[in-house]
Amino acid sequence: MRIANPIYDVVFKYLLRNNELAILILSTILEEEIIALDFLPQETATALENRSFTVYRLDFSARIKTRDGAIKQVIIEIQKAKFAADIMRFRRYLGEQYKQGFTLEEGGKMQRAIPIISIYFLGYQLEHVQVPVIKVLRNYYDAATGQIISAREEFIESLTHDSYVIQIPYLGPERKTAAERLLAVFDQHLKVSNDEHILDIDEAAYPQEYRKVIRWLNRAITEPEIRQTMDVEDDILAELEDMERRLAKMDKVIEEKDKALEENAKALEEKDRLIAELRQLR
After folding, report:
1. What is the DSSP letter of 194?
2. Cβ atoms of residues 77 and 43 within 8 Å
């Protein structure tokens, strides 16, 4: 079955704005049961000269039922990026979340900060880690003994966060976990040869409980606005890639000029030293 490629922002949004599918996808990534999920209005695609830039962000408020039966409220921040240079935008957006300070009122009396979970979808490969899904989970340790502390403190939970990193280029036919099987809808190896907007997925090889994701993305193909927006994204990315190439070329020229100036400065320094020595010999 052919589906719209969710690496595109417009398709990514189309997928995650479906509440049922968003719960399925996020529950599978987090490996925890999400019992309620609300889309927050902090959707962000940074603008540059009225054009979408390279980091796309969606925020959700979620109620999660933990394995021990407890209910916790969290903010799930999802960021999808196309270039490695986008790391500073990740930091800025996360800082904005902490600055915004989502709070939860309990019993009508006091407010507490809601913990944040970050999920990063990367359209590029990290430098050292070569796996599709990376979990960065915090533990508390007794500094004296090194033992793990199982209790949780509101102070620590409000100031630190767990993260999940999905490297889209590493998603492929070898799917070891439920998350990898579900995230196969992002597998860029399945692009059709003449249209990068489309992935060709074998629905029969896909777990039954996840096929609703495929069918929803199949519907997206027939949406003219989605197809047109994917074309626009292609144009923007082509311009940005050209800009990066030109900037890299300029950086190389500047580096070569700086090296030449440094060599000239050393030559002048050596000349001054020789002149000083000759004057001492007179």
Report:
1. T
2. no
